[in-house]
Design a protein that fits this description.
The structure is a single chain. By secondary structure, the protein is an alpha/beta fold. The chain has a single domain, classed as 3-Layer(aba) Sandwich (Rossmann fold). It is 40% helix and 17% strand. A 5-stranded parallel beta sheet has the order 2-1-3-4-5, with helices on both faces.
Length: 138
């Protein structure tokens, strides 16, 4: 049975890794379902004028988090929303895998220090894709 994966990555916090998010989502979709494909939408901008729909975004995202079999987050670009999603997923016992490029960021101590999360530092995209495939085989 296909897993439902909640993919988390920065939107309003910055879109510098949007192409990587897209590639990670495509990798997940090789075998499983991504509930949050919009995170990898290359046309999305931090400047989108969808402010005012925050309640709908919150309701949809938290429903997806409760439905998810696991969460995969790319956390190189710090994001308040992704931090919240990680904490929310932990509250509902959703397994969480946190990726970050170790040369480009120092992951938050609040994330790194929480033993609930599986922290995955990486250097290359190939490492990311191999690890995603390994996680999804579990």
């Amino acid at each position: 049975m296909k897993k439902k994966v909640y993919f988390a990555g920065s939107i309003r916090g910055g879109r510098s890794d949007a192409s990587l998010y897209h590639e990670m989502i495509e990798c997940i979709k090789e075998t499983d379902i991504v509930l949050t494909e919009h995170v990898g939408d290359l046309s999305r901008s931090v400047f989108e004028q969808n402010y005012g729909v925050e309640k709908q975004i919150y309701d949809q995202d938290t429903a997806w988090l409760r439905e998810a079999d696991l969460l995969i987050a790319e956390c190189t670009n710090p994001s308040l929303g992704v931090g919240y999603e990680l904490a929310y997923a932990e509250r509902f016992n959703v397994p969480c895998y946190v990726f970050y490029r170790k040369k480009d960021t120092h992951l938050s101590a609040m994330i790194k220090g929480d033993s609930y999360y599986t922290i995955i530092p990486y250097e290359t995209k190939e490492e990311v894709f191999a690890k995603i495939r390994e996680i999804l085989k579990k």
